[in-house]
Design brief:
- It is a single chain.
- With 892 residues, this protein is an alpha+beta fold.
- The protein has 24 helices and 30 strands.
- The strands form seven sheets. It has a six-stranded antiparallel sheet. The protein has a five-stranded antiparallel sheet with strand order 4-3-7-6-5, sandwiched between helices.
- Strand 8 and strand 9 form a beta hairpin.
Length: 892
């Protein structure tokens, strides 16, 4: 082998610059080996490589050709590597541009700060749009500049959230923010810490949720208004839910039943307000779906379908538990249904109809009833490559929304994340193509869409499509996706609340209306339109001056001013429809309703129709006047008849006395007549013998003794007759004249007994007079004699009806300027029914058997009337009768 150091004399040395020589030296080393492989080793070659020169000796043309080819190849490889590097830089620039577009065109406001010094790194365009600050302006501001600056939305609370993100990881919270112009708005902030290029950065994204907060406030306002509506209605009412749990118990019902709402709401014991024992109310029965026949079995009054409210049932009842003396209530129950027709509860209204019922009874006697708010969900972002029909970018919120990983989302397209058929029945693929085409044409496309998550569940969303700037052939579309489940639910809750309010109004059997502070009518039920003879279009959103005359307008305006001035419940009576053929008497119940700030927004009113009650009152008053006139006439006639009957009774008693006296006088007078006749005959015989001179002494003595006996007998019988006549005369004068005089009680009673002896002699009964003291009265002896006579007659006729040996005891004694006249018999006595009517006129147990029913009635009137006393009676069957008469010693 030839040594490399052999020189080539035919070639000269070539000098090159130092750098080039070094590069060529390296290249030569890389090329020399393959070149020598084709070199003829029999020829000497000398290669000298020095630091300052590069000399080739002994290399032939073949080696030079190989070397040049290798140089060209190496240069091509170098150019290819440079091309690849430039392409990589361009791809990196495109990726950075894409991320910059995502950053700038995000629907969330994004701000990036250096965590160490707090300097602003960057903000996107949405931040400037949402907050109104440029990047330059924002770099000089702090958290306080972007906040409402009241607790808990101040610099201190903002720093606390940042510390939580540093210590505990990503944070999601709501914040009350401030725009550059000072306006306040609500945002949802996502705050997390990232480490970029060895430095920690705070990345905050804010999404405008003002609309959501307003929706929440609206639902809260509706609930507040509903609660005020319940409390302001002038009708007592309560509601129960599907589980029969009481959900409403308004103030008027509290007042009516004296049962606090707090004791009832939340329980199934609505009956406690009305009944003493547990039993279902009408609302419970109608909620249970019972038939009207089954419901009827729970009530004594008639149960019937309401004529005013479809599906409602009405009835009336008396509730002894309510009020001091109980109340009559008219109650109406109606099932409450949701927007799809499912029964979710029941409403029962109660109206106090006590006055009407009492009026009817008097007239008859005279003439023959949101769901959970928006769930917090951040915005999801997907970037769709229209040409490849797949997503090329997906953020973590999209992964959270759809339940896929971010990598899995990059293998899906829009159709795979959509329900095949949308809510309107359209095919998803066809609709997507139309929306994407609109976005590619430069339009800002927004629409609602029914998406599908990894579990196959539908998720309602709001989607915004925007074409991303760049090369035309790229056709990239950014998809901003908001979960609107909560917003739709809020709309549904508002609709449900509105439907519930409208259902409540229509369910009310009484006219109800409400209007705003300016007097425009906002709503009313059909009962209101029916009473006013109006159509809905006649008054909706109109004021009173649009449909009433000036006189009534002035009256109602004055009432409105009074109501808004006092803000208390207002009740007044008014006659309406005066010019129509159907005028009505009504009572207005009105109250104001307020917004959440406590400001008066308007009024709500209810109208109670009392026309029937007023007509009933008028008819009752007219009837009362007629009845009063008739009563006066009948009273006068009755008084005359009673006076006549009493007089007749007295005369009948006097007639009995006369008959008895006549019978008593018959014996002594008969004796006198007989003795006088005998005396006459004896005197004639005596004179005849005397004239004939044949009278003997013995005969004269006999005749004288006979005449003496006759005289004695005539004198005795004459005295007896005179006594009877004298007693009868005194009794007759006392009873007929009722004159006042001073008399002895025992003597007066004895005189009466003398006149009654003929009646008593025909019986085996005995009268015992037990007056131990001398009692003087300045009174009327006649009524006392009449009382004794009637009491003895009553004992003989009724008390001793089944008694052979009856005994009557009459006693008297004085106390405190009064006397107690005590009358007792041992007859058959009386029961409670007889005692209850004993002194009633014409009441007798011997009707048609000699009893007039006036005897004891006269006794009662004489004692309590002219004598000024009082009388009581005690008796029981088979225990006799006891009359206690208390009289003043000096009559009034």
């Amino acid at each position: 082998m030839t040594a490399f150091s052999t020189p080539l004399p035919t070639h000269q040395s070539v000098r090159l610059p130092v750098v080039m020589r070094r590069i060529l030296g390296i290249i030569t080393l890389l090329i020399a080996v393959p070149a020598l492989a084709v070199q003829d080793l029999s020829r000497p070659v000398n290669i000298t490589v020095a630091t300052d020169s590069f000399v080739l000796f002994g290399i032939d043309d073949q080696l030079i050709a190989v070397t040049l080819i290798s140089l060209i190849t190496l240069f091509g490889m170098l150019l290819f590597l440079i091309h690849i590097r430039k392409n990589g830089q361009k791809a990196l620039e495109r990726s950075e541009n894409n991320y910059r577009e995502l950053f700038n065109f995000s629907s969330e406001a994004i701000v990036i700060r250096d965590l160490e010094n707090g300097d602003l790194i960057d903000i996107n365009m949405r931040f400037t749009e949402l907050y109104g600050f440029t990047k330059t302006e924002a770099s000089t501001l702090n958290i306080e500049s972007f906040s409402a600056n009241y607790p808990p939305y101040t610099e201190t609370e903002g720093q606390a959230w940042l510390n939580k993100a540093i210590n505990d990881g990503p944070q999601l919270f709501e914040w009350h923010a401030r725009h550059a112009d000072g306006c306040l708005f609500w945002v949802e902030v996502s705050l997390h810490i990232e480490e970029l290029n060895g430095k920690r950065r705070s990345i905050a994204s804010a999404r405008d949720i003002t609309d959501r907060k307003l929706a929440v406030a609206r639902v809260s306002a509706i609930e507040h208004q509903m609660q005020q509506t319940y409390q302001s209605l002038p009708v007592a009412l309560f509601t129960i839910n599907a589980g029969h749990v009481v959900t409403q118990w308004n103030a008027l019902l509290e007042q009516m039943t004296h049962t606090k709402a707090g004791d009832i709401i939340g329980t199934t014991q609505a009956w406690r307000g009305f009944y003493h024992d547990a039993r279902p109310c009408l609302a419970n029965l109608i909620l249970s779906g019972l038939s009207i026949e089954a419901i009827q079995s729970h009530y004594q009054s008639n149960v019937f379908l309401s004529k005013n409210v479809v599906g409602a049932i009405e009835t009336e009842g008396y509730f002894s538990r309510i009020g001091e003396h109980g109340k009559w209530l008219h109650f109406t129950a109606v099932p409450l249904v949701d927007e799809v027709g499912n029964t979710v509860g029941a409403l029962e209204t109660l109206i106090d109809i006590t006055e009407r019922k009492f009026a009817e009874i008097a007239l008859q006697n005279s003439e023959a009833t949101y769901r959970t708010l928006i769930d917090h969900a951040p915005e999801a972002i997907l970037v769709l490559d229209v040409v490849q029909n797949r997503f090329v970018e997906a953020n973590r919120h999209a992964a959270k929304l759809f339940g896929y990983s971010q990598l899995e989302l990059l293998n899906l397209n829009a159709r795979q994340l959509s329900s095949v058929l949308q809510e309107d029945g359209q095919d998803a693929a066809e609709v997507i193509r139309g929306h994407v085409a609109s976005a590619l044409s430069g339009q800002d496309v927004r629409f609602e869409w029914l998406c599908k998550n990894a579990g196959g569940a539908s998720v309602p969303c709001e989607i915004q499509l925007i074409k991303l700037p760049g090369k035309q052939e790229a056709q990239l579309v950014r998809c901003s996706i908001h979960d609107i489940t909560e917003r739709n639910a809020a709309k549904l809750a508002i609709l449900r609340e509105r439907n519930f309010l409208e259902t409540l109004l229509e369910a009310m059997p009484i006219p109800i209306f409400y209007k705003d502070r300016e007097g425009r009518y906002l709503g009313f039920n059909d009962a209101f339109l029916s009473m006013m003879h109006l159509r809905r279009d006649d008054i909706i959103h109109k004021k009173l001056e649009d449909w009433v005359d000036q006189e009534r307008l002035a009256f109602y305006r004055e009432k409105d001013l009074q109501l808004y001035g006092t803000q208390e419940k207002q009740i007044f009576q008014r006659r309406i429809n005066e010019t129509s053929s159907d005028p009505r008497y009504v009572i207005f119940h009105r109250a104001v309703f307020k917004n959440q700030l406590g400001e008066v927004d308007g009024m709500i009113g209810a109208i109670l129709d009392i026309t029937e009650l007023e007509n009933t009152k008028i008819a009752l008053e007219n009837l009362n006047q007629v009845l009063e006139h008739r009563v006066l006439e009948r009273t006068e006639e009755l008084q005359q008849a009673m006076e006549h009957l009493v007089q007749s009774e007295k005369l009948a008693a006097l007639g009995n006395l006369v008959a008895g006296i006549a019978h008593e006088l018959n014996t002594p007078i008969g004796n006198i007549v007989t003795v006088a006749s005998t005396l006459k005959d004896e005197s004639t015989a005596f004179l005849t013998q005397l004239n004939s001179g044949q009278l003997r002494r013995s005969e004269a003595i006999h005749s004288a003794e006979l005449m003496k006996q006759a005289g004695t007998m005539i004198e005795h019988n004459a005295i007896r007759s005179a006594k009877l006549i004298s007693d009868f005369k005194q009794v007759a004068v006392d009873q007929s004249s009722a004159r006042r005089r001073l008399f002895d009680l025992e003597a007066t009673i004895n005189e009466v007994m003398t006149t009654l002896m003929p009646m008593l002699k025909r019986t085996s009964h005995h009268v015992d007079i037990q007056i131990r003291e001398k009692i003087q009265l300045d009174s009327y002896p006649g009524p006392i004699e009449q009382i004794i006579t009637n009491l003895i007659s009553n004992s003989l006729l009724h008390g001793f009806d089944r008694t052979e040996n009856g005994k009557i005891t009459i006693s008297a004694h004085t106390f405190d300027n009064e006397i107690l006249l005590d009358y007792r018999d041992n007859g058959q006595g009386m029961g409670a029914d007889t005692l209850a009517h004993l002194f009633d006129p014409f009441f007798t147990t011997k009707l048609g058997q000699g009893g007039s029913g006036l005897g004891l009635y006269i006794v009662y009137n004489l004692v309590t009337g002219v004598l000024g006393g009082r009388i009581t009676v005690n008796s029981s069957p088979d225990a006799g009768a006891h009359f206690a008469i208390v009289l003043p010693q000096s009559a009034p």
